[in-house]
Amino acid sequence: MDSWIDTTLTPDFSIHNLPFGIFSTIGSLPRPGVAIGDKIVDLQALHKTGCLHHLQIPAETLDQRVLNPLISLGKSTTNQLRLQLQHWLSAHHDNPLRHNAHVLVNRRDAAMHLPVAVGDYTDFYASMDHATNVGKMFRDPDNALLPNWKHLPVGYHGRASSIVVSGTSIHRPYGQVKPPTASAPVFKPSARLDFELEVAMVLGKENPLGQPIDIQHSEDYIFGYVLFNDWSARDIQAWEYVPLGPFLGKNFGSSVSPWIVTTEALSKFKVNGQVQDPPVLPYLKENGNTHYDIELSVYIKPDGGREAQVCRTNLSYMYWSPGQMLAHHTSNGCNLRVGDLLASGTISGPEPHQFGSMLELSWSGSRPIDLGQGIHRHFLEDHDTVTMRGHAVQGTVSLGFGEVTGQILPSLPWRG
Q: Active site includes 328?
C-alpha cells in the first residue's frame, strides 16, 4: 500500500502508521490531526467539509486542545477514522483529501502540543536488564533482583503535571544530596542528571473503580504508544528513595513524543517476549505475541557540538509486557482513565550499548561515555540536548514515533 503523499524522506509517518496528535498553526488554536509524510490531516477542517459525517464523530470532539474526547469515542470510531484516512491517502483517484487541499497542513508550519490531558501517570520497572544493572551497582552483584521482581511488574505513581511535550527544555533541578564522605545532606543542583529511555502506553478506555482489567482484554484499553523520557536526578534519588521510592529525583519533568502510534498500526510488529521463570500467577498469564519489535535509540548533542548516538536497543527486550503492566495495575480494582500514561521504565538490553540510561552507560559515573570530538560525559551537562527515536520495519512496512527531544538548562535561581 502506497500513498500519493510522498513519505520517502519521512518513513516514520508512512501510510501504515497515521498517528494522532495535537497541532496548531500561526493564528489558530491547537486541534487534532493525523500525520502522513510531511503533512498533517487537519481533522477539524476535514470534518467541516462533511466528509466524516458517516463516522458519526461529534464536531466538538475535534474542537478540543487534547485528544481525550476523540479517544473516548472508542476504538470502533478511531479505527474507522484511521482506516478511512488510509483509504483516501492510498487512493490515486478523486477523494475528499484531494478535493480539499486546505485540510493538509505542512508539518514544518505546525507547532506540536501535549497530545492528551494526562490525569495520572505510572512508571514501571519492567526491564530485567535495567533492574539487574541497578541491582549490581547498588545492592548485590550476585543477587541483583529483589525477591518480588520476577513475580510482578514493579511500578510507582509519578507526577502528571510535569509531563511535557517534546521540545520543552528542562531546568536542572535542586534537591537534597548526601555526598559519600559527608555526614549530612546538602541542598544543591543535581550533578548526576540522567535520561531514561522509555515507551508509554496511552490509555483509551476506562474501567470502573473496583473492576480489574482481564489481561486477555488489555489491548482494548490501550489507544497507542509514545516515546517517553523520564528525566532523573540520580544523586537526589539515591538519598530520598528509601523507604518509599522515587520522589523529587523524578517529578521535575518527563518528556513525551507528540504523535501517538496506535496499537492497530503496531500490530504487525508483535513478537514473543522472554520466557518468564518462575511462571507468573494466573492473572498475569497471556498467550501469543505480547511484545513489540521496535528499535529505539538515544542521542546526546553537546552545546555547539554534533549529535552522538549513545544507545541502541529494542522494546522487545522488556521482561514484562504492556498487558501484564496494565493487568497488574488494575488487579486491586484501581480505575484508569482516558489519557492516563503507563510508562515502561528504562528499556535496556543485555549489551552495554543497549543500556537505556547514563547511570548504566557510565556505570554510575565510573566509565566515560564518548560523544566524539574529544567530548565525554558521565551524566548530562547544562545545554546538552537529548533526543530519542523509535522505528519498526518488517519487509516493506515501516513506521516510527518521530522523536522526543529536550535540552537541559541551568538551574533557576533558588527563591525558596
A: no
| Cα angle: 4, vertex 73, 390; to 5 degrees | 50
pTM, whole model, 2 decimals? 0.97
Residue 124: partners with Cβ closer than 8 Å, 6 or more residues away:
153, 154, 155, 320, 325, 342, 343, 344, 345
State yes or no: pLDDT of 94 exceeds 90.
no
Which 8-state DSSP code applies to residue 289? -
Q: Which of 130, 328, 329, 378 is catalytic?
A: 130
pLDDT digits (tens, 9 = 90+) for 119-162: 999 999 999 999 999 999 999 999 999 999 999 999 999 999 99
Instruction: Please report the domains of the chain, with CATH numbers, ordered by start residue.
Output: 11-113 (2.30.30.230), 121-409 (3.90.850.10)
Which residues, including other chains, have CB under 8 Å from residue 64's CB and lie 6 or more apart?
A: 31, 32, 70
Assign 3-state DSSP to the chain and report helix, strand, coil percentages, each to 5.
Answer: 25, 30, 45
